[in-house]
Amino acid sequence: MLKSLIPSRLVTIVSDAVRSVVSPASLMVEAPTTIAPDPAGLYEADEVPPVADIEAAAAAFDQAAQQARAGDRGKRAARKVLDRLPAGRYGSWLVSRTVSNRQTADLDAIRAIFKAHGLGPVPMKASAPSLKVERLAEAAVTVPVLVAA
Questions:
Q1: Is residue 35 classed as helix, strand or coil in its secondary structure?
Q2: Engineered SS bond to 114: which of 4, 13, 94, 119, CB 3.0-4.6 Å?
Q3: Burial letters for 30-49: b for 16+ Cβ neighbours within 10 Å, e otherwise?
Q4: What is residue 127's predicted lDDT score, i.e. its pLDDT?
């Protein structure tokens, strides 16, 4: 009887709030990893470089990615200090801000326009798939055999 008087959405919100305190991990839903299809323009079977060249490229890619992540972490740490400074000269460094020429779509305004004109949801497109390179354990390394069709 009591449950029929309380909207089900409210029950869900209260239940989630209680679980977030008692067992926060129970609210986590792991998103499935989706493998993207291969893009166009890949090597043909007879064009694939030697495995040693592929391994060298993968190692270089991995090292560059690690350096980029380390650089991003360093920049974020420095920005915590620099973002709060007023523009000016600090020792041999000049801190200033410039207007960016980059522009992005204002999705909130676009959604409002679509809603006002009854156009439904704003059409979105997926981002390009990300290239992922992982080093495998030596025992697990297998070389695929490519067969020309």
A1: coil
A2: 119
A3: eeeeeeeeeeeeeeeeeeee
A4: 85
DSSP letter for 24, please: G
Length of the chain: 149
- Measured CA to CA, the distance from residue 75 to residue 68 in angstroms comes to 10
pLDDT band at 66 (very low <50, low <70, confident <90, very high): very high
Query: pLDDT tens digits, residue range 25-35?
Result: 666 666 667 88
Structure tokens at 39: 């893009």
Using CB atoms within 10 Å of the CB of residue 114, give its burial: 0 to 12 exposed, 13 to 18 middle, 19+ buried: middle
Report the C-alpha gap between 110 and 123 in whole angstroms: 10
Which pLDDT score, from 0 to 100, does residue 34 have?
80
Taking the whole predicted model, whether its pTM rises above 0.85 is answered as no
